[in-house]
Amino acid sequence: MKKKYTVTDRIITKITGWIAGVTMIALAIWAAFTLWGYYKYEQTNDAQVQEYVNPVISRAGGFIVAVKFEENQPVKKGDTLLVIDNREYTLQVAQTKAAIQKAEAQLRVLESNTYTMQKNAGSAKAQIKASAAKLWKQQLDFDRYSRLYKEESATKQQLENVQATLDVNNSDYQAARENYGAAESKINDIAAEMTVLKAEIVRLKALLDRNMLDVEYTVIRASYDGRMGRRTVEVGQMINVGEVLAYIVDNETDKWVVANYKETQIANMRIGDTVQFVADAFPDQKFKGTIISLSPATGSSFSLLPPDNSTGNYVKIVQRVPVRIRVDAQKTQLAMLKVGMNVNVYVPKNQRRHG
After folding, report:
1. Per-residue pLDDT tens digits for 17-31
2. I need a surface site. Which of 3, 194, 297, 344 has the fewest CB within 10 A?
């Protein structure tokens, strides 16, 4: 029995044929473009946008009394981010200032004592001269009376009186010299004390500078223009020195892309080569860049536990080499790219070489 086709069957068959044909043509065009892309570009989708994301670290400990930023908020260099209770630090500053004032007062006392002892030493020195003159005169008298006593022109009592006076003058002379030596020794002792005290004042002033720095550290400011990350602190929270309080994305530095190319793809890549890439978030927007460096080692070599292929269980795996690409774009385009975004990178093959 001969099979009959209805008009509907013929229409469906025709439509199906057209659809299949269009699909085949579309697949052929897509395959052509894909093959052309692989022929013309070294491609990878293992690439992400990067820029400096730095931690905001506390250099002073204490209770937070104010938080001046919100998540994702743009900030300017010098803007206050956090304020820490600084009362303990200001008390340390006051104590150190008081210690400096006390040491300086002690230094002034020693300087006054030095002046007094110098006067005493001058008086003792003059006393030495006077005692020496009396001793010299009395020695002459003793010599004269000694000759007179030998000639029996003076009595023994007169000679003994002159001898006694000579001994007294000699004792006075020795006492004057000892007083002068003691005064000089005291001056040297005071000078040594002043040296120690001056060193202590220098130490206290350095400590004061440190304490004042601690007071400044209780106000945490933005180190550069940027955008704040997630907020994890609140008023009343106790923080320690060195604690990470937030993250800030640096707006003052360039953005770049790290593209992890297979080792078989980088043979013809050079620093300065132009690059095109497309972000997954903006598939219709093309970005340009420039290769600025190629990693000196594969990515796996920088891992915590680098692979050891000397065990005998070696399986060859194609390695990835990070390629750093500077983003060449206007501010409006740069603002579109966020840290960590995935991108597809295209490095044209056979770029014209110069030099």
Report:
1. 788 888 888 888 777
2. 3
pTM above 0.70, yes or no: no
- From 294, 290, 296, select the one nearest 272 (Cα to Cα): 290
Q: Determine the Cα angle at 34 with ends 33 and 37, to 5°.
A: 85
pLDDT at 225 > cutoff 60: yes
The 3 state secondary structure assigned to 13-70 is: HHHHHHHHHHHHHHHHHHHHHHHHHHHHEEEECCEEEECCEEEEECCCCEEEEEECCC
* Structure tokens that stand for 1 in this block: 């029995």
In angstroms, rounded to a whole number, what is the distance separating the alpha carbons of residues 65 and 83? 6
Q: Which residues contact 70 (CB under 8 A, 6 or more apart)?
A: 228, 231
Per-residue pLDDT tens digits for 285-317: 999 999 999 888 887 777 666 666 666 666 677
Q: Which DSSP category does 309 fall into?
A: G
141 pLDDT higher than 70: no
> CA-CA distance, 20 to 18, in Å (whole number)?
5
- Residue 251: pLDDT band with limits 50, 70, 90: confident
Place of tokens 């220098």: 202
SS3 154: coil
